[in-house]
Every structure is written in C-alpha cells, then in structure tokens.
Give the backbone structure.
Amino acid sequence: MSLPAPPVLANPAPRGLCTDCGVSRMADPAACGKACQFIKPDYPALEAQVHGRVAGSDGDERFFGTMNAMYRAALTPARDGAQWTGLTTRLAEQLLETGAVDAVLTMVPDAVDRWRPRPAIITDPADMVHARGMRMGYAPLLALLEPAQAAGHRRIAVIGIPCQIYALRALEAALGFERIYVIGTPCSDNTTTANFHGFLARLTNAPDTVTYLEFRADYHVELRFEDGSQRLIPFLKLPIADLPDDFFPLTCRTCVDYTNRLADITVGYMAGEGEQWLIVRNARGQEMLDGLGDEVTLAVPGSRGKRARSVKGFVENTRLAAGGLPLRRMPNWLRGVMGWLMPRIGPRGLEFARTRVEMKAAETVLHLRRAEPAKMKNMVPAHVWNLAAPYGLAPEDGERRDDAP
C-alpha cells in the first residue's frame, strides 16, 4: 500500500468552530482565515471559480447547488465492502488507472479502530479498496496537500466532505497543482469517533461486532454484523434524545453546505432510493463519470411525497432544543406506528433530499443565532437564508452581510 501517510504538523489550539480539515496543520496555519467555511464563506465567488457560474436561485439548484446533470446511479456490480455500491472510490480508482492523477487524498480506517478516519495518500489503484466504507470522526485531510506536493504529485484527486472541500477550493489557486479532481460526498451530522462508539452501544449489545452502519433514505438505520446478520432500526426508534448535548458539535449543527456544492461531482444517497445519488456539477465531473462507461447504470431520480409538514415539525422541535427545553418525546406505542408509516407516506427520492437540505438550513439559523449570534452576519450565506425563508426564518437586524453597520 501507499500508506502510512506522511506525518503532518500538530494541530494548534482549536477554534470554537473547527472540524480540523487540516489547513491549521499546514505550514501557514493563518490560511484558515481565508479558507474556513465557518468564518466568512463566499459561495458565489467560489462557484464561479470552480463551475464557471453561480448556482441558480430556483429549481433544484436552489437546494443542491450548481449542476449539469443529476442521476440515481449504481456501480455494477456493487463492490464488496462499499458503503453503497462503491461508486465514490471507483471514480478515484479509474483516475489512477488512466494516469489522470498521480495520487488520491482520501480516508482509510485507522489500524486499531475501523471507525476512526485516517487521511491517506493513495498512488496505487489497487489500494483504493482500503478507502471503501464509512468512517465517523474528524481527520485533517488537507494537511496532506503539502506532503503530496513534496512527493512530486502534480495531478491529484481529493475525496472529501463539504467543509474540507470549501477550504480546498479557497486555497486551490495558490497550491500550485496542475490539476485537482474533487469527488465530494454530502455531509452527515458528524461527531467524534469516541461519541460514535457510544451511539453504537445504545443500538446493540454487541457494538464491537458492527461492521456497517448507514442512515438510509427509507427512514431506517441499517446495521450489519461480523456474522453476516443485519438489523434495521426505524429513525423514530433511535435513542437520539438520550445522547449527550455535545454529541453533534456546533459545526455540524451550523453546516451551510450539506450537498458539497464545490465538488466536481457529488456522490451521496439521499435521492438514490436505495441506490446512489449523483450530481455532476461541471465538465471535470462529467469527465470522471464518462470514464466509468457502462460500469455505472444511470436513471432519472424519482420524487414522492411532500416535505413541508416534516420540515415544520423539525423546525419547531429544534426551536425548543435551541431554547434549552427538552425535545418532545413520542410515546413508544406511536413510534412503531409512525416508523411503519414514514417509509410509505414520507418524502422520498428528491423530495427526501430537499427535506434534509431545508432542515439543515433551519438548524443552522436556529443554533447559530442561539450560540454564536455575532457570527450570523458573515457565516450564513444567501442560499441558506433562501432555504430557511419558507419556515419563517428571516434575517434579523445585523444578520446579513449587506446590512448597514
């Protein structure tokens, strides 16, 4: 393997809003001031830089960002050990196979803890197998940019989550690489690896035997175990109310980019209806998809149900939580009924994805307004306000950048 990764600088004292994307561990940690998504993000400027235009304010670009095409997709056959079908890692693998890139910066499991992400520079296509599957936690992926340069790599691919990719794009012009391909995954509410182990322990009496966990678009969490068995848990039966208050850090409750708007191609699950959800954002993304040829099957994403009621309920519960009141608990007998109903009448496909994006926008406004009101003016971009507006969440005085001082 092309592992272990080169050593990186130690992380300085973290700021209040930081996911340790790796920039603070680079030779110039002050670059965080320009690169950090949680300081003063400028999505229109970076969208124009990366995609050649700014995302539209209506249609599905309003929800998901700039796109040239959108699909329900599946790699055929699905790869063993992949979180879904293996499309994300296969895209990077074929870039290495064809020589389009010299190296891929991505995550692999820690040697001791399979759930802990560890940044890695992969140069052998065969080693991409080690990047399959989900990791939970934070890892300084972008700290590998300088070691990759030092190793002589000039054309790279990066697989990352939105806060990592925003920082990469903000610094890209100054990095000096000949070409960077960006494969993005939509974020999910992240937490520390230690907290994740605590969550597993609440789901099963045998957490050490869990090999796979996924929040699925059919309103279930899927667990797989070492013995080959599987368990599905309805969302409404998850012990979310029993988790500690800091289980999800403020960074993940105030995310302004759920769908990785600055990637060349975004690969997720929310609108996949059991397959994968693919957003091709620019010509470089199309180039990567074309490279797979008939290895990938493509279809038009479906869309069913209506999101308004679900989002309104989420906003109300989040208001209560943000104000320090406990979340309302559903009676156990009703959880079973609703768990049966939601996959049948709840939003599905693209409507499910729109639901999650609007929920994240509302969550950002409510939590940031409560915890860091001084950051509202610079940190919340226009596309988040537009998503939150239908639910009565409008900027208050001093909360928009164009407000007079």
Remarks:
- The two ends are 55 Å apart (CA to CA).
- The longest strand covers residues 69-75.
